[in-house]
Specification:
The chain is of the alpha/beta class. The chain has a domain of about 170 residues: Vaccinia Virus protein VP39 (Rossmann fold). It is built from twelve helices and 13 strands. The strands form two sheets. Strands 4-3-2-5-6-13-12 form a seven-stranded mixed β-sheet, with helices on both faces. A six-stranded antiparallel β-sheet has the order 1-7-8-9-11-10. Strand 8 and strand 9 form a beta hairpin. Helix 4 packs across helix 5 and helix 7 crosses helix 12. The radius of gyration is 20 Å and the shape is globular.
């Protein structure tokens, strides 16, 4: 069965969630500034907080779909590949992989995985709304909410057109997306938190039903002595410059979590006692993510406009082959190239 993947999905399975009623609706300028600008300071700890995702099982599901449409080898594009975990697994299954992602930090980690595995994977830093390839591919996969980061329905059509353009004749496009039900009923206006020795985070979520935009403010606390902390300390000048250029995007600061040295450090919902138990130096990062919920009708209409042929969609629960339900949390969609 396909796993319930992505950060929000995996986190909500194991974290305390509290309703929020005091979050103001994000304005259009904030959403535009944040569009496609996520996973920067979080890149170094992304895999840490995704460690409960059964990637092998997930890859079995994706390769099963690919094989069903006759694609057992050849060039495959992983669009929005992140740190390359799925890209590596697909390469191990015999596919010639290309990974595209907008985040330099994510691709840096993907490149480290490639160096460790020795696999021949091409990574390209590009915005999915304007990506370019050297030729066509047999299939494109776009997973783990990447489609939800397209906030404008016109951008959805643009990406689908690009996919159609770079697919071989009859090539297959497989993507997933989080449902409106998930954003409205499960994430909603909540605060999500997890505390670990390796790092902690606070996720402050807000969903606007009118615009169907989901915003979450992410605060990360990473021990300076950890591998992630050391790496980001070396890059602190870059983070500081980015913060100056893009207020409200990514910020980084060092502070001591000893409650006696930092009165009121429980303002984010973590108690003085929890801070004082550590009493060590942490590095704090903050960033804001925006995602949009799309209806199945909107997805199908965008596919038609782009030239792609809609083939099927599945509920992400169970065996991954059932029809989407009103309470489906994740949906998989399959489309096919049908002419340029």
């Amino acid at each position: 069965m396909p796993p319930y993947c992505c950060m929000a999905g995996s986190f909500c399975l194991r974290m305390k969630c509290e309703r929020r009623a005091d979050k103001m609706q994000p304005n259009a300028e904030e959403r535009k500034d944040g569009e496609m600008e996520a996973y920067t300071s979080f890149a170094r700890v992304y895999d840490l907080f995704m460690d409960n995702v059964p990637y092998e099982e997930w890859c079995d599901y994706i390769t099963g779909l690919l094989n069903e449409y006759g694609i057992s080898d050849g060039l495959v594009l992983d669009l929005g590949c992140g740190t390359g975990s799925m890209t590596e697994l697909l390469a191990a299954r015999g596919y010639d992989m290309i990974g595209v992602d907008v985040s330099e930090d994510m691709l840096e980690i993907a490149a480290e995985k490639r160096a460790a595995s020795g696999r021949d994977i091409l990574y390209l830093q590009q915005d999915m709304r304007s990506f370019e390839l050297f030729g066509t591919v047999r299939a494109v996969v776009c997973l783990c909410d990447s489609i939800n980061y397209l906030l404008d329905p016109e951008d959805l059509v643009t990406v689908f057109r690009l996919v159609n353009n770079y697919l071989d004749p009859g090539g297959i496009f497989i993507f997933d997306l989080s449902s409106e039900y998930k954003y409205r009923e499960l994430l909603a206006d909540r605060t999500i938190a997890e505390n670990r020795d390796e790092g902690s985070f606070i996720w402050d979520n807000y969903y606007d039903e009118e615009s169907r935009i989901n915003e979450y403010d992410l605060a990360l606390f990473i021990p300076v002595g950890s591998e992630a902390g050391k790496h980001d300390q070396n890059k602190s000048e870059k983070f500081d410059r980015d913060a100056a250029e893009k207020p409200g995007q990514d910020t980084a600061e060092e502070f001591d979590l000893d409650a006696e040295k930092n009165p009121g450090c429980d303002a984010e919902g973590i108690s003085d006692e929890e801070y004082s138990q550590e009493g060590s130096l942490y590095r704090k990062y903050q960033e804001t993510h925006f995602q949009r919920a799309y209806s199945l009708e909107e997805i199908r209409e965008a596919l038609e406009k782009s030239g792609l042929e809609f083939l099927a969609w599945y509920d992400g629960d169970g065996d991954g082959r059932g029809a989407p339900r009103e309470d489906s949390e994740r949906i998989y969609v399959i489309a096919r190239e049908r002419g340029k």
